Amino acid sequence: MEKYQNLLVVIDPNQDDQPALRRAVYIVQRNGGRIKAFLPVYDLSYDMTTLLSPDERNAMRKGVINQKTAWIKQQARYYLEAGIQIDIKVIWHNRPYEAIIEEVITDKHDLLIKMAHQHDKLGSLIFTPLDWQLLRKCPAPVWMVKDKEWPEYGTIVVAANLSNEESYHDALNLKLIELTNDLSHRIQKDPDVHLLSAYPVAPINIAIELPDFDPNLYNNALRGQHLIAMKELRQKFSIPEEKTHVKEGLPEQVIPQVCEELNAGIVVLGILGRTGLSAAFLGNTAEQLIDHIKCDLLAIKPDGFTCPITVDSDNE
C-alpha cells in the first residue's frame, strides 16, 4: 500500500499565501496522491442572535462556507490549473482541532500539513493552541511548515531518544527512521538524513551533595552509552557514522542548534501526545524544544497511540 497519498492541509484563514498547501503540492508532485484543503469556520454571533430563525441562521452559515470555499479555490487556482488534484472542504465547527482530527480519522488521511507561524525577529516557529492540540492528539503524522522555501540542499534531521529509561523509545526511534527514509526517498532524489541525540550533563547539585561523585566520569560514561546506542541504530539502516551526532546538552538547546548548523529543511521527532495531568507533571520534550526550531517539523506518534477524539460510525 502506498503511503502519503492522502494529504490533509489545514488552510490558514488569516493570510492569502498558504505555505502548507505549497508544501503539500511539493510532496504530491514527487510522490503522487491527492490533497484536501480543509478549513473549519465558526462565528458565535450567528448562533447567539435571537433575531434570526433557524433557517436564516443555516442560510448565513452556508453563505460563509460558500464564500470561504471560493476564496480557497482562488488561493489554489495555479495548482488546479496545473492539474494538481485538490479537494476543498469548508465546514461549520466551533472546535477547529476536533474538526481537523475527525476529518483525518474519517477520510483516513495519512499526513496532516499545517503552517506554523514564524517569529519575525528570531526566525523560530511559533505554535498556537490549535497547533499544540494537533501535535498532541492527531493520530496521523503532523507536518508543521515554516513560511520559507525548502532549502536546496537541506538535510533531514531525525531526533532520536537514546536513553534507556523507557523501552518504548527504542520502537519509536525505529519508526521515526523508517518513516523518514520512506518519505524522504519519495520526495527527494538523494535525501541527506542525519541522526541526532542529546544527553544531559550531570546535575550540579549531585556534585555538591556527593563529594566523591565525579561529574566528568559520569558524563563520559553517559556519552559512551549514547555512542554505543547510536552505532547500533545507524547500522540497522546503513547510515554513515559521519551523519550521526551525539551532543551534550538539553534537547531543546541541542536540536535547534544542530539543525541550523546542518541547514536542515525539517526535523523529525517523536511526540507521545501526553495530555492532562501527565503533560503537566511529565511534560513533553517536543513542546520544550520546537518553539526554538527554525525549520519544518514532522511529529510522529508511537505505535499504539490512542487518539482521544473519536468519530461515531454513523457520522462517517
UniProtKB/TrEMBL annotation:
Pfam families named in the record: Usp
SUPFAM superfamilies for this protein: Adenine nucleotide alpha hydrolases-like
Gene3D superfamilies, sorted: 3.40.50.12370
Gene Ontology CC: cytoplasm
Keyword line: Cytoplasm
Compartments in which it is found: Cytoplasm
Cited InterPro entries: UspA
Known function: Required for resistance to DNA-damaging agents.
Stated family: Belongs to the universal stress protein A family.
Protein name according to UniProt: Universal stress protein E
Origin species: Proteus mirabilis (strain HI4320)
Lineage, uppermost ranks: Bacteria, Pseudomonadati, Pseudomonadota, Gammaproteobacteria, Enterobacterales
